[in-house]
Amino acid sequence: MKVSRSKRTEEILFKVLMWIAMGIVFGFVISVIWTVFSRGAKAMSWDMITKLPGGGFYIGKEGGFLNAIVGSLYIVGASTILGLLVSIPVVFFLNVYLKKDSRLAYVARLAFDVLFGMPSIVYGAFGFTIMIFFGLRTSLLGGIIVITLLIIPIFIRSMDEATRNFPRDILDASYALGATRWETLKVVVRQIAPGIATATLLSIGRAIGDAASVMFTAGYTDSIPTSLSQPAATLPLAVFFQLSSPIPEVQDRAYAAALVLTIIVLLLSISGRFITNRFSKNKL
Amino acid sequence: MIRKRIVKDKLAHGVMLAMTLLSIVFVVVMAVGLYVKSAPVLENRSLWSLISSSQWKPMKGEFGFLPFIVGSLWVTFLAILISFPISLLTAVYLTEYARPVVRKFVFPALDILAALPSVIYGVWGMLVIVPWISDKVARHFVDFSSGYTVLAAGIVLGVMVIPLLVSLFIEVFSSVPAELREASLSLGATRWQTAKKVVLRKTLAGMLAATVLAISRAMGETIAVLMVCGCVIGIPSNILEPCYPIPALIANNYGEMLSMPLYESALMFAALILFVVVLVFNLLSRIILYRIERSEA
Amino acid sequence: MAIEIQNLNVHIKDNHILKNINLTLPEKQITCIIGPSGCGKSTLLRTLNRLIDSTEGVRLEGKVLVDGADIIGSGAEITELRRRIGLVSQRPCPLPMSIFDNVAYGCRINKMYKRHKALIYAVQKNLKAVGLWEEVRGRVRTPAARLSIGQQQRLCLARSLAVEPQYILADEATSALDPISSKTVEDLFVSLKNDYTIIMVTHTLRQALRIADNVVFMYLGEIVESGPAEQVFHNPQQELTQKYLSGAFS
């Protein structure tokens, strides 16, 4: 029985360690969220999200960061649409046109994995050189292009995941009715719609929160861009730049912007989970 | 009518093939682009002197990357040191013990950690971790520390890496067939013994691959690290000193580099270093993970 | 003494898998559990060593007395119970380690031997008991996965025997094997019944006919009929059993 006890002690010890580990994870989550909310709420006001930076904004005078909110929405909206246009055909191609053990599919998936792992600062640096090459300045267009490139691998990887478990019978059924593979696309898209939805939410989350890539390419401005060639402000950069100011009022705005960004991202994450849960239930 | 449909199908095939190929080519284009841009500095200095020198004086044309490389390594090492045990224990619990109730709470928590943008972690680091280090931790060891240190960057990065590491570990552990666990359990092993001697043992390669992926993620993380690392050029001698990792270097200097071609080239070289590290690490670990996935099927 | 099952009910989520099972499994005999797939044979087996615990949403009611002690209650020491009840599963599953380490695994887990020599001796003894020693001699340090499927199954049996159980549960232990290996393993079970109480789930009636001392026939989670093999096979009391034995359904 002594043996059994040492075995049990080890078991309990590690179980306790696992509980501690999970407790730490929870601690981090709560700490981050609480910090952002408590600090942000103090600085939050209606003006922040409805007004552009006024004169003297950066020395603590009035105004808000509507420019950053709108800029982020412009960039994220455009790049999400562009990203979807590119990734749906690619995912479809990988899963329907190519065979399961296709070499091309393997290499392509590896390439997307590498692109997925690429730090956004590298995208930013690369995007910047490309823009200079084409004679572009920091602009809304530059930001859109780089963010599109950044989220395509995210789109493709997560949609690919959803499509791979896709029942092949449905394809066969469609072919059997005489449909070409291109026509079968519609069937597939309808089937993996929840997968596309979650992928989109995931990508939007990444796109809206990324700072390192737009820093080089979209730049920063106090006004709302009216054309693609004007620079655009973004929320993460609004946080980053204003936080580096020594003036408390300006820092406060950074916290308010951080709060807005966090709320957006949390909403995206929660609705993502909601979609997967609901649709996976329907599938059964 | 039929011909039209078939032509449409063929056309779609061509376009999609082109798109897929383009994305593969994109990796190559990126490599070439960064290389071409960093060529001037590589022509002027030997590769070895660039990565082994610690003299960073762009105005005098001296570009020694050692402080930044060491800074990156320090921060990454610390981040993995913090996140590895936490992630491993969490993943073992979730796959080996796994009461549905616990999952219901832990998964959304991990979701949130994964979803939060880098800049938010930076804000959290500045408000919580940095003061904690400067007020509570540092005074036991050194006279004064601003808190903007290797340690702060390591902690913030560690937290950011946890969700990635947990999800990769879970993926790897789930590849172990249930029968294997049952074989061990039915011999009188406890769950932990089974996890330790069967699951972890069988998935060593996969765990390594997961960790390498986490390392490459940590190495490239920019804004959060930039906000808490202190950004002082120099080789840190302990974790309570500031540091200056490579991504922070690039992000901080993008504005001024335009005026000096060699400076710009040096920064592009920094991006190239990151690119190569991430490329190699990702390829290695993904290939391992694919193998595991295939052997399972 | 052996195993006594009283009013056992097993629910998994909303499904009532085992209904009011009452059964005595006599000592040092082979008891075969037969019945069509999905009748709860495997669930019953997995309840006996509590492997069922890892199934999501499972609820156990009733009593299972192993040597007089109830194993269903929360007070039961499950790992010790599992040591005493060996399991041979349908597909052989060697652990990812050498042949030697496979057999030694349970001994090490349970810290049975202090001296390494004693461990080596025990491994040898058990490999001999399943007739594998001559075949793997000289390569016991090579990975177990390189053995043939039949050899692997015997290795798994040796591994179970090494922790000195009193009971052996076998879940269609020969169904994944070729006919010759299958025969070898079957003969092994017969030779083991002098020392162990063996409970076997089987899909092949012929096998049950050849080796069973007792037979339990299950259908839709209930025991339809149980008793000595002779009686159940040649003089079944229930119409359902007769039908099953005559091959009316399977």
Question: Can you lay out the helices and strands and say which pair or pack?
Answer:
The complex is a heterotrimer of chains A (284), B (297) and C (250).
Chain A: H1 2-43, H2 46-50, H3 66-97, H4 103-117, H5 120-133, H6 140-164, H7 168-176, H8 181-191, H9 193-209, H10 212-217, H11 235-243, H12 248-283
Helix pairs in contact in A: 1-12, 3-6, 3-8, 3-9, 3-11, 4-6, 5-6, 6-9, 7-8, 9-12, 11-12
Chain B: H1 2-44, H2 47-52, E1 56-57, E2 62-63, H3 66-97, H4 100-115, H5 118-137, H6 150-173, H7 178-185, H8 191-202, H9 204-220, H10 223-228, H11 246-253, H12 261-296
Antiparallel strand pairs in B: 1-2
Helix pairs in contact in B: 1-12, 3-6, 3-9, 4-6, 5-6, 6-9, 7-8, 9-12, 11-12
Chain C: E1 3-12, E2 15-25, E3 30-34, H1 41-48, E4 58-66, E5 69-70, H2 78-84, E6 85-88, H3 99-109, H4 116-129, H5 133-136, H6 149-162, E7 167-171, H7 179-192, E8 197-201, H8 205-211, E9 214-219, E10 222-228, H9 229-234, H10 239-245
Parallel strand pairs in C: 3-8, 3-9, 6-7, 7-8
Antiparallel strand pairs in C: 1-2, 1-4, 4-5, 9-10
Helix pairs in contact in C: 3-4, 3-6, 4-6
Structure description:
The complex is a heterotrimer of chains A (284), B (297) and C (250). Chain A is mainly α. Chain A has helices at 2-43, 46-50, 66-97, 103-117, 120-133, 140-164, 168-176, 181-191, 193-209, 212-217, 235-243, 248-283. Chain A folds into two domains: 2-43; 57-283, MetI-like fold (Orthogonal Bundle), CATH 1.10.3720.10. Helix content of chain A is 78%, strand content 0%. The model of chain A has no long low-confidence stretch (mean pLDDT 86). Chain B has one domain: MetI-like (MetI-like fold, Orthogonal Bundle). Chain B has twelve helices and two strands, in the order ααββαααααααααα. Chain B has a two-stranded antiparallel ribbon. In chain B, helix 3 (66-97) packs across helix 9 and helix 4 (100-115) packs across helix 6. Chain C has a single domain, classed as P-loop containing nucleotide triphosphate hydrolases (Rossmann fold), CATH 3.40.50.300. In chain C, a hairpin with a 2-residue loop joins strand 1 and strand 2. Chain C is globular, with a radius of gyration of 18 Å. The two termini of chain C are 33 Å apart. The chains are: A mainly alpha (284), B mainly alpha (297), C alpha/beta (250). Chains A and B meet through helix 1, helix 3, helix 4, helix 5 and helix 6 of A and helix 1, helix 3, helix 4, helix 5 and helix 6 of B.
